[in-house]
Amino acid sequence: MRGKRIAVIGGGIYGITIASVLSASNKVTLFEKNDDILSAASGINQFRLHRGYHYPRSPKTVISSLKSEKSFAQEYRPAIMANTENYYCIAKEKSKTSQKKYLKFLGKFKLEYKVEEIPSLEVRNVDLSIRVKEYLLNPLILKKKCWAKLKKSKVKVLLKTEASDRVFDDFDHVIICTYADINRLLKKFPKHQQVYQYELCEKIVVRLPKEFKNKSIVVLDGPFMCVDPYGTTNLFLMGNVDHAIHEANIGKFPVIINKYHKLLNKGVIKDPPITNFKKFIDSTEHFIPLITKAKHVGSMYTIRTVLPYKDKTDERPTIVRRINRKIFTVFSGKIANCVEAAEKIKKII
């Protein structure tokens, strides 16, 4: 094969997409330290294909989400779930965005919506309830699609293989897409190591009453919650701005307390020894009383990584950086921007 020898580090959605795109004219090897792809943050999240509704304080993130949705759909359409009912609510108290501002925001970016109450919603605690045009991803189909892309593009996939400094000598280009671990391979380039905010997060998996079937509910814009169908499992994922985070630090590397090591990136853990399940439910009851019927199936744990000091806007950019002539890093907090990042890398290389 003609072209360059390229190492892509990290088997998340970004590493997979970049490896697949670059393999068209290059010899690509994908390094993944875990025993399967999509086993860290790419496989432990709310699986929301963002269109911007979530970010009323960050116009840049909205524009980026709308742009990236189309390119992502072209590559991963089979994984997009079209049968969910997606709702956004504005809390009556403690919201950083008012009903009036949110509706103005929706109009500005031409985001479709219909004012519609959710039957199980405690309406006295929200100022607005709307049904929106947004989609979720089926994680099982997404993984199958990713493996199919890798095999079709003949990317060499090395599982259970943590890349070392040797990759810089063995390959013409190295693309680092390791998210929470992005600074590790840059130890020889300390001035290029960035400071991030690391959050050890829990996603709880629950069984809910039939009233929740196919419903995705997000409460904005503050210390609130979301509940989403978990693929086609008849289970649901719950997120919470406050209670999902067990530990957090700002620095070049995540600080992980020993008791969490056995929980991180291990998929759904039944009867986890450490969980905020009760806090999730108690805080959600304020908006959805029926949530008290939730049965805790298990929890997933991973490190979420964001830019620090962005609380005012909650901005989630996608950043492609060139370290030197052969090394690149890719950082992003949104699944859908992976195709955009891959095309950017392709143009540079």
UniProtKB/TrEMBL annotation:
Which segments cross the bilayer? none
Q: Which Gene3D superfamilies match?
A: FAD/NAD(P)-binding domain
Enumerate the Pfam families for this protein: DAO
Q: Tell me what organism the protein belongs to.
A: Candidatus Curtissbacteria bacterium RIFCSPLOWO2_02_41_11
Judging by the UniProt lineage, the source's domain of life is Bacteria
Write the protein's name.
FAD dependent oxidoreductase domain-containing protein
List each copy of the FAD dependent oxidoreductase domain by range. 5-209
